Every structure is written in structure tokens, then in C-alpha cells.
Amino acid sequence: MKLHEIRDNEGAHKRRMRVGRGIGSGKGKTSGRGVKGQKARTGVSLHAFEGGQMPLFRRLPKRGFKPINPVKLVEVNLWQLQEAVDAGRLDPKQPVDGAALVAARVIRRARDGVRLLGEGELKAKLALKLAGASTKAKAAVEAAGGSIELPKPVEKVKKMVKKPAKAKA
């Protein structure tokens, strides 16, 4: 075997069909697009068109709601906090918030806030300022002697609309 004798396997490379190059090529005139009409034109996309039948995506029911700009909270478990305290990266005497968790390398970025979950065990007494916490996590922090500060929920204000008094007949 010599270097100039090396060839690809038979059928490994197929030449592209040159369309619209005469009747003898087999793909001349209409270039394999059939006769005139919408599909013969360029730039046509008939996504989900089923010949006038109601398309599948319109036949199936739509359920739920996806918010346009959801609140993205970073989730942290109790065991992650305890691990950071044991390693000396998190000071139990200082208040713990999103910035402190980023500095302690517990989370990569704070995003819209941090939510504490109750997986694992917490022995350290911590003062936490977070965006949210599960019921189990709150109980574990308070059992360890710590405190947790959460933002107050926004209450919906009902507009007081006076109804017109009924006229006496």
C-alpha cells in the first residue's frame, strides 16, 4: 500500500445532484419540485399544515401558565451551610445572605435570591437573611438557635368600590 493509492470506501462520498441543468440530468426544468404552486416557490414553510384539517397543536388542550419573567431562586440545603461552617468558609457570627454564600463558595451566583431547603442537619447558630425557606428548614434553623429573616409577602390591595345606593320607590 502506497500513500498515493489511499482511497475512501466505495460509496463514502456521494456527489451532490446539480438540479435545473437540463432535461437529460433527470432533475431539470422544475428541479424535482413538481409543478407550479406554493411548494414549488422558494422560502415556503408550511409548519403544521395538515391540508385544512385542524392541526395537532390546535387539537390538543393547552394547560397551565408559564410566567414571562419568573423569579429565579438559588436553592441551598442545610447540609451545605453546615459544611461551609465546618470548613471555615462561613462565619456563624456574621449575618448570612446571598453575598456571604457567594463569598463562601456555597453558591456560584445569588440570582434573584436564595431559598433554603431542609435537607441535612444544621448544628451552627446562624442569622440568615434569605428570599425564602421551607417549613422544615425554618424549624431546623430555629432548633439550632439561629434566626431566619424573610421578606414580608406582598398583600394584594382590594380596591374599595362603593355601590350606588338603591333608590326608594
- Tell the overall outline: flat
Provide mean pLDDT, rounded: 90
| Architecture per CATH nomenclature, i.e. the level-2 architecture of the domain at 74-149 | Ribosomal Protein L15, Chain: K, domain 2
Elements, N to C (H/E) = HEHHEEEHE
CATH topology of the domain at 74-149: Ribosomal Protein L15, Chain: K, domain 2
Please, how many helices?
4
Describe the structure.
The chain contains four helices and five strands. Helix content is 17%, strand content 9%. The strands form two sheets. A three-stranded parallel sheet has the order 1-2-4. The chain has 169 residues and is of the alpha/beta class. 13% of the residues are buried. It has a domain of 76 residues: Ribosomal Protein L15, Chain: K, domain 2, CATH 3.100.10. The protein starts with 55 loop residues before the first helix and ends in a 20-residue tail after the last strand.
